[in-house]
Design goal:
By secondary structure, this protein is of the alpha+beta class. It folds into three domains: about 70 residues; about 80 residues, no CATH class; about 110 residues, no CATH class. The protein has eleven helices and 13 strands. The strands form three sheets. The chain has a five-stranded antiparallel beta sheet. It has a four-stranded antiparallel beta sheet with strand order 1-2-4-3, covered by helices on one side. Helix 4 runs antiparallel to helix 5. The longest helix is centred in the C-terminal third of the chain and has 21 residues. InterPro entries: HARP_dom.
Length: about 300
């Protein structure tokens, strides 16, 4: 890998905002020096380049890059290759060519470790990390962490951990989770909840009931999840529920008092308090943030 091709300057094609784009391998010290030289530069994440304003931006960037190239150790790659030959890393995740190619299962630990290695960069075409030989010693120092994280994220290892976690879940917890997925809740047949409004429940927090079945409950195992029906199961029917949307939570006026505790425990549902509504809203916002982080395109469309 020749250092001369590590830097690139492209003039901006925007006539209204003259300037130039700069691209170079990530290195903390190099970025620091760049920001000191160009304090008004801005990082363009979508294009993975820096933008420097000004009609003379191309000339200023080229002069700075020439200066940086002059200060680099021109024999660094050769020294790094010699160090590799003397003490090589052997791993299925590492391939040696003109530089060092690192290919692992996705892992945040691996990404963060490689980002800390000077001159290491992501090759989006080959979908690998490329590390020049001049950074070999740094790569070797971080390799145990990288290899361990890669092995931990192999499909078989992840599958094995899922099975172990599943086996470790207590039977009672598993039963509660299964019941939650059924989206049903026992309500007194003679004191039914209103449909379409956020209501608080003993087991599932604030939910919205959508449908109420007419048949009485005849499921002895249900009493293990819903203790309120153990004494008189024949009084209750199943109500189908869903999670409320954030706008529904925001529109709901909270009750001012907690109400009768005995009534809550027997009936199983009640109009929610301010704290209960705020807790449900907090969890719904957490779910939205998690979904946006998993689907960046959805996040962009929502912000637009």
């Amino acid at each position: 890998m020749e250092i001369a091709f590590a830097f690139r300057v492209d003039p901006s094609d925007d006539a209204e905002r003259p300037g130039a784009y700069a691209a170079f391998p990530y290195d903390r010290d190099l970025v620091r020096r760049f920001r000191e030289r160009f304090p008004r530069a801005r990082w363009r994440g979508a294009e993975q380049r820096w933008f420097v304003r000004g009609t003379t931006a191309v000339q200023r960037l080229e002069a700075w890059m020439a200066q940086e190239l002059e200060t680099l150790d021109r024999h660094a790659d050769a020294k790094g290759r010699d160090a590799y030959i003397f003490d090589p890393l052997e791993s299925p995740y590492l391939t040696v060519a003109d530089d060092l190619k690192v290919r692992t299962p996705y892992s945040r630990t691996v990404v963060e470790a490689l980002r800390q290695i000077p001159w290491a960069h992501w090759d989006s075409e080959e979908r690998i990390w490329r590390v020049p030989f001049r950074s070999y010693e740094e790569l070797k120092a971080r390799w145990p962490e990288i290899e361990e994280a890669a092995q931990r994220n192999e499909p078989e290892a992840r599958k094995r951990r899922r099975e172990e976690r599943k086996a470790a879940v207590p039977e009672e917890t598993s039963r509660v989770q299964a019941e939650r997925r059924r989206r049903r809740y026992p309500v007194p047949g003679d004191d039914l909840p209103p449909l379409g409004f956020p209501l608080a429940t003993l087991q599932w927090g604030v939910v919205v009931f959508e449908e109420i079945e007419s048949d009485l409950i005849d499921d002895p195992a249900a009493g293990e999840v819903y203790p309120q029906i153990e004494t008189d199961m024949s009084r209750y029917v199943w109500a189908r529920w869903r999670m409320p949307a954030l706008p529904e939570i925001y529109r709901t006026r909270p009750v001012r008092s907690d109400g009768d505790p005995d009534l809550r425990s027997n009936r199983g549902w009640w109009w929610p308090s301010r704290d209960e509504l705020q807790e449900r809203a907090r969890k719904l916002r957490e779910i939205e943030r998690a979904q946006r982080s998993r689907h960046p395109a959805r996040k962009a469309s929502a912000e637009a």
